[in-house]
């Protein structure tokens, strides 16, 4: 495996040891790693230096405490009616403010003359109990944040498409599908299509280069413009884990071409993962982080042997499956097949969403679009009626979690042997 992929997995293991309060084991692990990999002395020293920084960061990092009244300074990164997602910056408890990077999910329906919008910096008083946050009081700060870009695009779509399915039209590009609509797509294994990922970022990337073909911009100017637009899109997506991974990956690839370096894509992915974990070790326990990085790595490994769309999709599905079982205690049998079938449909919805950001289309077009989305939802509900979402009970999910990991490893071994032997 490339250097930064080895470092990425070593960082993951180290964080797990620290979180399990096995500090001595973590230090022994660092010593083992030093002698395990066959790198030069300088490379080994750099490897251990990064692990040491991660160790210190993880030991000194805090998580949002439970069963305590908290004061929180944060930013609204998404909102649907009275449901909020807030990114925390600082948390006050035990008579002091502590820097804690995390997310809170909660409902707040108290009346205010100063509306809470995406991008607002806010102050919250509340309490977290059994994983659920209950806000007591919430107030806006006078300052806005970069997340306001998301609010701008959401208002544009909602203003130009005033129909029932406008949330789907917005979420298909910018992510964050919630409520009943999310349940429909989750039950058929398609909710990942509404989580901004490499799929979405690559479509934006491809569209930009298609538009460049009609211009005379020099190639390096195109690359700089691409990086800027990708970061605008990242802020509009709410800086989700998968969006950050995909945006940084493509941006570094563009910089790589701009500067003339020749860096392996898997190395770039590993580097981004290490930086992400060094900034916030607690993100390791996020479903979005694990699904995003494991799916991306699985795809990068597969495309070294084949570009078969079914095998590429299957590799991503198998990489996401263990985390779906672990975090959501369930999965859909038809998800992989529907993903292939629904990809062109998602493309069409993304194009329509882009149009509604720019212009207000005639009513007969909007009526057709709303009907088109309703048919898609009805079809998925019909499928789910006969092939339901598998919900795991008791501790059976732990057994299936390990089985799914073994299945993923077995799949990659089979692909490796199949395509390396055929070349011989």
What does this entry look like structurally?
This protein has 424 residues and is α+β, with helices and mostly antiparallel strands. The protein folds into three domains: 3-60, no CATH class; 69-145, Beta Barrel (OB fold (Dihydrolipoamide Acetyltransferase, E2P)), CATH 2.40.50; 154-423, no CATH class. The protein has helices at 3-19, 23-36, 41-60, 148-160, 166-174, 179-187, 198-212, 219-236, 241-259, 265-279, 287-302, 309-328, 335-358, 363-386, 396-423, and strands at 69-80, 83-93, 96-107, 120-129, 132-144, 330-331, 390-391. Strands 3-2-1-4-5 form a five-stranded antiparallel sheet, with helices on one face. It has a two-stranded antiparallel ribbon with strand order 6-7. The protein starts with a helix and ends with a helix. 34% of the residues are buried.
